[in-house]
């Protein structure tokens, strides 16, 4: 009888064991952010109106038309007077950069932010199991990953990934690499380092499609400490819920809209094509189509489906009211509390806000980050996140939607859950010394006040340089 009972219970015990093992394995694959550190360059690298004007005047390849274009671009960019540039432009050597300049630029960021993050978190370099670095426009030998390993003497069996050419959405690609490793290994601590090298890519020619990058891109970076160790869950700030990557590189039009290249005179820079907005919209729509079912409640998805079907039926029957909107708008605020938008430029922020029907409060973190730090490429999202934290808006259970764009053309997005109240900003928050002054009364750029007279200049009588 006991033997029969054992035979009967054995499958049940096995089932419980397999379920327990599956649940434990799934929990080991979770991805948490323990801490992160955004980089604030020193004040001697700050680009104010006075220095910005001097920098433009130094470029002897510019004429009156280029001055007018730059004035319009800078004034409408949404960037303020406290953004940062690489040291090479302050020493007046932007026309003759070297590889050493680019490496020095990255080392200044690495050695400041990695050190601060490790010290604050209490982690020793030997506890880091995975290192992922993304800097799109710099590839050196030894690699940038090796630079960090050498500096902090990380262990010799550390797993490393060095990503280049991934554009402004590279930090979420790096995050996907971390997540993939977490699925295969238990109790891993990862360091994600994201930045951009501008030293060798500060454009000194007169091609308007390449000059524009100088008006938007600024120095910055972020270091993020992640883990899938369950015993550290209580220390986590955020938990990754899902991540979606969309790549339109197979489309020639999308592929060529953002490229690092040389102009006709051989000057290196970053080209931004006129079809960029169209490429971004296509990638954005495809990305939303995939991530929406993962982050929105069923009731909103059902409402959206019903409204869409009704409008399609109405159009077929010819009963649609003239002038009525024909596009269904899904309400992302039903599943999202905070929107962390890439600071690609004022037009990018406005476009996402219009597409998702967001309020000015939803867009405020991205607008203020663009104003204070500019477009810091792949690290931009994390400056936006620190703004939310500094404003004491992040509470346990809140949901954060991150959206980024990058060359290729790519749109990547992810969804986070806040795992503890973050109403007391951390000591490493780059906004701590200025958050009380944001948002300012006006985002007007003083360039117009100082250089607005250029608009009335005539090419035949203009006294250039300014």
From TrEMBL:
GO terms for molecular function: fatty acid elongase activity. One of its GO terms (cellular component) is membrane. Keywords: Acyltransferase, Signal, Transferase. Residues 24-312 form the FAE domain. Pathway: Lipid metabolism; fatty acid biosynthesis. It is an enzyme of class 2 (transferase). It comes from the Eukaryota. The active site is at 168, 247, 338, 342, 371, 375. Its EC number is 2.3.1.-. Residues 1-25 form the signal peptide. It catalyses: a very-long-chain acyl-CoA + malonyl-CoA + H(+) = a very-long-chain 3-oxoacyl-CoA + CO2 + CoA. Belongs to the thiolase-like superfamily. Chalcone/stilbene synthases family. PANTHER family: 3-KETOACYL-COA SYNTHASE. This is 3-ketoacyl-CoA synthase.
């Amino acid at each position: 009888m006991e033997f029969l009972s054992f035979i009967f219970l054995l499958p049940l015990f096995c089932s419980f064991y397999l379920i327990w093992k599956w649940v434990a394995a799934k929990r080991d694959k979770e991805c948490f952010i323990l801490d992160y550190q955004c980089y604030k360059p020193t004040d001697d690298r700050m680009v104010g109106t006075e220095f910005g004007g001097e920098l433009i005047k130094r470029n002897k390849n510019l004429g009156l038309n280029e001055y007018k274009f730059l004035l319009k671009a800078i004034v409408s960019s949404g960037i303020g007077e406290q953004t940062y540039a690489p040291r090479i432009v302050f020493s007046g050597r932007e026309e003759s950069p070297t590889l050493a300049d680019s490496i020095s630029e990255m080392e200044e960021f690495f050695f400041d932010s990695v050190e601060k993050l490790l010290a604050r978190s209490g982690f020793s370099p030997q506890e880091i199991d995975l290192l992922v670095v993304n800097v799109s426009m710099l590839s050196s030998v030894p690699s940038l990953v090796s630079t960090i390993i050498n500096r902090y003497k990380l262990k010799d069996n550390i797993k490393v990934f060095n990503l280049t050419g991934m554009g402004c959405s590279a930090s979420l690609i790096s995050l996907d690499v971390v997540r993939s490793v977490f699925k295969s290994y238990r109790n891993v601590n990862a360091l994600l380092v994201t930045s951009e090298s501008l030293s060798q890519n500060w454009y000194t020619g007169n091609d308007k499609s390449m000059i524009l990058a100088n008006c938007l891109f600024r120095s910055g970076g972020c270091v993020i400490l992640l883990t899938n160790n369950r015993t550290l869950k209580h220390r986590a700030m955020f938990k990754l819920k899902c991540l979606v990557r969309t790549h339109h590189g197979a489309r020639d039009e999308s592929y060529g809209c953002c490229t690092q290249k040389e102009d006709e005179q051989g000057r290196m820079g970053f080209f931004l094509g006129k079809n960029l907005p169209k490429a971004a919209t296509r990638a954005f729509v495809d990305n939303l189509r995939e991530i929406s079912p993962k982050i929105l409640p069923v009731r909103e998805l059902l409402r959206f489906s019903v409204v869409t079907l009704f409008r399609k039926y109405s159009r077929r029957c010819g009963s649609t009211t003239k002038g009525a909107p024909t596009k269904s708008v899904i309400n992302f605020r039903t599943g999202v509390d905070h929107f962390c938008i890439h600071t690609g430029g004022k037009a990018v922020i406005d476009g996402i806000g219009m597409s998702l029907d967001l309020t000015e409060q939803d867009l405020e973190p991205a607008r203020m980050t663009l104003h204070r730090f500019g477009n810091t490429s792949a690290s931009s999202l994390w400056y936006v996140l620190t703004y939310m934290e500094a404003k004491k808006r992040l509470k346990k259970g809140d949901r954060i939607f991150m959206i980024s764009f990058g060359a290729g053309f790519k749109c990547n997005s992810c969804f986070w859950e806040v795992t503890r109240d973050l109403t007391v900003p951390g000591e490493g928050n780059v906004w701590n010394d200025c958050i009380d002054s944001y948002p300012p009364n006006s985002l007007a750029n003083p360039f117009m006040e100082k250089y607005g007279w250029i608009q009335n200049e005539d090419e035949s009588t203009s006294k250039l340089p300014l």
